[in-house]
């Protein structure tokens, strides 16, 4: 049966009152099992990762989210049936949905005959109605899904179902700390909202954006902002700044998808508005099938296989044939009440080693290159992983440029580094694919092929050919490309935090005495928007923004500005450095020759 894997000797046989039948998968919170209650109901049991269980903030949020999720109901979601939020390793049981994920159906991994590809328009309308109805139920009890993606949408004979609602938000209790410590954000990169990729707090409108991305994928078979093959950084940039690719989406639903994908959360329709726009959607036993006939037939086969799995011959747990199949042990008798109490205490000790190895699919590094590879399978030495920065030399002479690398684990052929080159008048960002690893002077040398993913101003940046990174002295890395070199020093995560003294709004009058210039500095990670500028002058109103390059030494270095709204006489500014003067004013010095230094007073 699709998606099922046999239990191993390391898996517990029981979780609470539920006997485990097989593994379903793993995710950001832990491992998920197919199980059966003592009354015979088939359920999905999610066992939380041990390291999350040790976080008291996570546990507090987990209790609250489970309580809220119980109130959602099960028409368009998987209902929460049971949970033990007080166990040393908490768990939650939901109703098991007998159907494939949307990603399996559209992406080609469901069934023996391969992909069903994009769904027809009548199926898309029913899918959109189901997703909007699920959000009405989820948001109605104060939850935000935060990770709505094709693998969290299950297709059944009578409509779609949304899973992992609300519970994903419990990760936020530790996610905010993780954001500060390691620069990670919650969500799946290709299906995040602009708020998520920019590190802002998310609300119900974020889920609506994700509905748009899911519908675009179901309608075209493609991710609307590109796949991760081009690098996580590039996908996140497109989500925040570029229009979605909707070619091939049916005309009858394309506008609805585009409205969901509005960059401004306030411009997106609410779930109730979506349901109204779709109009009455046929349902019930007399309604025509909402999915293609061949897919409906496959769903029926899926249900039969589920019954076989739920009641295996002789009561044996299901097995998966491999090159070496071991006989399954005889199933234990149902536990007594006393045994169940002992098992609840014993389970965490048995499961700790198992869940500690579960992968965290919902926590992705901000600006990282592709999905995290396990260190053991990586071609990148662990000591190379992290953020590195330093000044650039050309033929031994300083150029005034800065170069930053964010290096992650990965293998040859994968994007393992994101690079930022900052000059006085430009900022270039590139993804680096690992070409090879050689040894020079006894040290590993990484050879990267880079692709420009962002250029400010547009068209200014070009790839430099092969980049080489190798160990230098005193814990540094040496970078070389096209005659340029740099000694890179490791940048601690805390160096990216904007000091509190900079935060807020600052203003100065224009030099001609008419209008003003206003700066707003917000909290941001390196590579994210930190500075918003509003200039009101005789020509009108001009707005722009700039990203943070570094926060160190009591100064903020921000890249050249990008104009959001132009007016006559409105021009972008060069790279600049912000500092706080002794009299409490904000000082801004431009590294280009376009503007003189400026001082700003705090707006009360």
From TrEMBL:
Chain spans, region Disordered: 310-345
Keywords: ATP-binding, Kinase, Nucleotide-binding, Serine/threonine-protein kinase, Transferase
Pfam families: Pkinase (PF00069)
Domain Protein kinase, chain residue ranges per copy: 18-291
Signal peptide interval: none
Residue stretches of biased makeup (Low complexity): 310-327
InterPro entries: Kinase-like_dom_sf, Prot_kinase_dom, Protein_kinase_ATP_BS, Ser/Thr_kinase_AS
Keyword Nucleotide-binding (UniProt): yes
Binding site for ATP: 46
Name of the molecule in the record: Serine/threonine protein kinase
Species annotation: Streptomyces decoyicus
Lineage of origin: Bacteria, Bacillati, Actinomycetota, Actinomycetes, Kitasatosporales
